[in-house]
């Protein structure tokens, strides 16, 4: 009887052994990141674990991207911190709940695939700006000082924060522990393969915890409130007090960033394996369902996380079971060992996020874009700088606007060919797309034509002629014909 049961189980779950092994690896990668993102977001550490559990179990069970893993992400840390500071922790659940419902609606309307139409330069610029602000904010955590509110002030105040830390033994100890954590993460790829079976973030935080405990370094550790005590369901009363344009803008920013990051991550994960491809609308609905549950629990927003997803694929995962099991392991840890969080040094978690923030800045991609597509490189840089100087939502809108303008400019390519044989009429041929963006160039070229000779303007080569250009051409023809020469003859387009 036992062999028959084992055979049936093998048929139903043919990759169970590989998925269990992969889920343990993803759990070990996710644990320090969940806690670190929560602490950096200004919320209880347990809420990061709650989001990780929901991302594993709820989103993991749904169809979409089979091997992608979701949870709290460094890419939303800055926005969550600003939202909690502006609206308060009780309203966070409402924001995340509204984000989830909006994602569900977008998925139901089959708009998930359209997120792939967002310029990659805008998304990478968005992540680069987030990375810069995240790094700056976490350096303040490394020194044990309070970070300014805006991204620009964070960057501008770094020299003074580091100078103050140099005069404080406690700040120096905290900074050294965080720097050591970053050093371990950077060097982890160089250690022997057997040692690398332990995930880098877990090893770095574990070593930092051991050093802090043995040496008695005076560094801050994570505050523990208990899982049930940290959960704060959304407060509709708090929503009524703070509802406004700012709240709506934050929900839109949450939705845009979480959805775009998740779907771009799904495309990247698809390139890592040969299994089923992502169904983008279903994946967007899975993210929406996860964020809806996170909102009801008052937890952090979730998104697909490329670090965990890559770890899942590289660990040999074959089905959705691996990401669901990783959520189960997180739940068991949060339920049975929450007091273990109190031993984690805050500088070590800040070091992990400094490293994660640095990986969000696509230095190599910027260099490659500058060589081949300078317009895209400019959009990336402007988006990142705008996020740092103005704000998250405004920076993304600036990047999207630049992307649209660039596309419109490129689409309005036009060519003017002038044939002048020295005698007789001058013939001018316009071809391409004549839009108002190219109107100054068109008029400059036409007004340079001889005024004492008849002109034949052929528009048959135009694919598009907008109203502004048509009106300008008619006005130019009237002015040119008014100089005593033969009237301009226009050959209309198709």
Automatic annotation (TrEMBL):
It comes from the Bacteria. Keywords: Membrane, Transmembrane, Transmembrane helix. It is found in: Membrane. The chain crosses the membrane at residues 20-40, 87-106, 118-140, 171-190, 202-222, 242-264, 328-357, 377-405. InterPro entries: SLC26A/SulP_dom, SLC26A/SulP_fam. This is SulP family inorganic anion transporter. Residues 16-383 form the SLC26A/SulP transporter domain. It is a multi-pass membrane protein. It holds the Pfam family Sulfate_transp. The keyword Transmembrane applies.
